[in-house]
Amino acid sequence: xxxxxxxxxxxxxxxxxxxxxxxxxxxxxxxxxxxxxxxxxxxxxxxxxxxxxxxxxxxxxxxxxxxxxxxxxxxxxxxxxxxxxxxxxxxxxxxxxxxxxxxxxxxxxxxxxxxxxxxxxxxxxxxxxxxxxxxxxxxxxxxxxxxxxxxxxxxxxxxxxxxxxxxxxxxxxxxxxxxxxxxxxxxxxxxxxxxxxxxxxxxxxxxxxxxxxxxxxxxxxxxxxxxxxxxxxxxxxxxxxxxxxxxxxxxxxxxxxxxxxxxxxxxxxxxxxxxxxxxxxxxxxxxxxxxxxxxxxxxxxxxxxxxxxxxxxxxxxxxxxxxxxxxxxxxxxxxxxxxxxxxxxxxxxxxxxxxxxxxxxxxxxxxxxxxxxxxxxxxxxxxxxxxxxxxxxxxxxxxxxxxxxxxxxxxxxxxxxxxxxxxxxxxxxxxxxxxxxxxxxxxxxxxxxxxxxxxxxxxxxxxxxxxxxxxxxxxxxxxxxxxxxxxxxxxxxxxxxxx
Length: 499
Prior knowledge:
Blueprint: H1 8-17, E1 25-28, E2 35-40, E3 43-52, E4 55-63, H2 69-84, H3 91-100, H4 119-133, H5 136-145, H6 164-176, H7 180-197, H8 203-206, H9 239-249, H10 256-268, H11 272-276, E5 283-284, E6 292-295, H12 303-306, E7 312-315, H13 318-333, H14 337-340, H15 366-375, H16 383-396, H17 402-409, H18 420-424, H19 431-455, H20 462-476, H21 483-494
Antiparallel strand pairs: 1-2, 2-3, 3-4, 5-6, 6-7
Helix pairs in contact: 6-7, 9-10, 9-19, 10-13, 15-20
């Protein structure tokens, strides 16, 4: 029988057929994948059919009198989400849905030992473990995620009493706030935290049972009216925008270190994590080149996981080297011993507390570089978009081959992961061809720096740029603007280039 939209009339008719001696039959719902009405001599029940591990399975949800149509469809939808995340719906899972939907009373809350970790203690223990085993950027990210406002409801609670259902509601609340990617990321951080808390060496202090949050997922992403996923398309900045970014960096409107770091990003095309952590000793005055920059494997994405130990070496075009020198010169000239003694090319501008940034030799934050670009007037690009601009315009305008682009952008410099010969013996780093490419890219960008200024003479006005960037920063941080200043701000935003 083909699927039909199950209605109340369908259920009434099915009940009439369910009498002693009746043959078993099924009605498949067209609105909820896998949901069926199963009719037999003993009555009518809801059933969910699915595949797991290559096998067809069924889960009896219960009588049609215990779930109305909307509830049955909701349970089927939740089961599908669980399957997509790698879980398998079973009777224990179904029991939790009954509790969540008010079909069954929750068991008495577990009474935790006062000596057991509460939310704050458990979070601190886990973040210490992340700091010990993962990169600093990961620790910063996890600390930020675990500070999500929707998790404040667990303040002071023993972690042993926090259920999967409660945490799922918190994640769902984040999703409802409109930050769906944030909700997904939050779930991906909480799951390993609970695995840590439920590990054999920690569960005695946490009281957490293994696998408690294994099924934690965020709701599916919303769909747009045309049915496409609600995701932003990948952005390729036009060359005129790339030129505009460099012009703003050179305008004098920004802090010299921040401006130099962004300009250095434009001309080296490396990830902001590597740029922010660049050390002065990584630069070498090599014959035939302005300088070379050696990026150690630990500063490159996935290098440690793949077991890559070779450095990624870039010959710097003159403009990139000049940007780095600007940062060197500023650091040496500033009356701040902490910055003068820093080993970093782009040092942290403000000393941070040990709780936020261990050690005195701190580097500029990746978020400082990224956010500063987003504050630039009429700039949409992020630092990662610049890499996409190089790959796209380098291919179209400069006729770079794909394999050549990988020499600059790829962490493996175009090698196949595990290529022992290339990684261990071919150590020439392709400096000459990379130098030709990066110099060509630099010259291409410089043409568009001139074009950007000609198209918008305001790029020579450091005051105008500084005010626009401050407005953008205030808006991003929800700084309240006095009513009397709002008109002036609107006029500034609309101000056109001088003829």
